[in-house]
Amino acid sequence: MLAALKRLWHKLGSPRWFFALTSFWVSLLGWAALLFLLVGAVWGLAFAPADYQQGNSFRIMYVHVPAAMLAQSLYIGMGVAGFIGLVWRMKLTDVFIAASLPLGMVVTALALFSGSVWGRPTWGSWWEWDGRTVSTLVLFFLYVGIYALREAIADMQLRARASALLAMVGTVNIPIIKYSVEWWNTLHQPASFGLTQKPAMPSEMWLPLLVMVLGFYALAGFVVLTRMRAEILHREGSARWVGEWIAGRRAI
Amino acid sequence: MGGRMDRRAQGYLMYFDSFADFLQMGKHGLYVWLAYGSTALVLLWTWLSARQSLARVTRRLQQQAQLAARAPASAGTKMPAGAVSASEREQNLARSDESET
Questions:
Q1: ipTM of the complex
Q2: Cβ-nearest to B91 among A47, A156, A222
Q3: Of A71, A72, A62, A66, nearest to A118 (Cα)?
Q4: Cβ atoms within 10 A of the Cβ of A105, count?
Q5: Residue A189 has what pLDDT?
Q6: Residue A23: inside a domain, yes or no?
Q7: CB–CB of B61 and A113 under 8 A?
């Protein structure tokens, strides 16, 4: 049992094995993302009833909440990958960080932008120096910081170690984002979704949100896996299995 | 059960009466469409850029393979732009041996 687990652990660290395993998942996730996002957007935009207080502006929730959730999840993923990379020297963790960075950065920007656009009709201002908006802005700067760090360091091992460390340290910001609505007096509404309690909305309002969240996460799976595959090919370019894979593909 | 209004409030029917209504979103059209439009653009970009990064490296490796097939004798001395250098490769390999054994 333990030996099998150990073997799996080593397999997981092998780019070649990872590359072979993900070729199926990447297309499945891509199609799932397309389906969920289209259904969720139409449902949220045209079928969900308007909010009795916020009117139709509440529909922004269907893009804002999934973007904010994904922004934090990707960062947690990078932090965990950084930890594993530092402790076990696994190659794939740095590939994961490199692949998640661009997505995490733009999705955080999207959460901030859609929040700002939602804030204008709801709070009466485009920007509030509120606990949650500020901590999300810090998250954005953390993504930018890791990106800049990676661009600045040429040595692969040093780059991997430095960005793993920054990703790990930055995760302290995640609980701050989460509890910001409870710690500080805030305009931001509390969580729309929780694992333990029923949503405060009726099902015709939160079902489209669930579909959108699934769509965002499926898209993230597609994007991160595709970028990881590209990064693996780039790094392993002269390995024999890469040559065989390349030979089996038609010219593009 | 229930009339059209009930079914609409439960989300079974389209919430809006007309397409113009849908575009207008009450008085929040600008904000809703700005948020959804930016989301669509950003998500499309993430999709396309990921696909493009995979296509780019695949194309480069294909070109390299073609070059190597055409001139096997000089393959060791000439390296196409962007290729991973031998020393960098070795570093990678050393790293992978460390983690995989």
A1: 0.88
A2: A156
A3: A62
A4: 19
A5: 78
A6: no
A7: no
Q: Is residue A240 part of a domain?
A: no
Tell me, yes or no, whether A5 lies in a domain: no
Q: A95, A175, A108: which is closest to A141 by C-alpha? A: A108
**A53 occurs within a structural domain:** no
The confidence score (pLDDT) of residue B41 equals: 96
Please answer yes or no on whether B92 and A156 come within 8 Å at the CB atom. Answer: yes
Q: How confident is the model at residue B72 (pLDDT cuts 50, 70, 90)?
A: low
Residue B73 Cα, gap to closest chain A Cα (Å): 17
- Best CA proximity match to A43, nearest among A28, A27, A63: A63
Q: Does the pLDDT at position A111 exceed 80?
A: yes
Question: Whose CA is closest to A122, among B28, B47, B15, B5?
Answer: B28
Is A20's pLDDT higher than 70?
A: yes
Residues 6 or more apart in contact with residue B53 via CB below 8 angstroms: A226, A227, A230, A231
**Number of domains composing chain A:** 1
Residue A208, domain extent = 29-44+59-235
* CB pair distance less than 8 Å for A230 and B26: no
Highest mean pLDDT among A16-30, A190-204, B84-98: A16-30
- Tell me, what amino acid is at A76? I
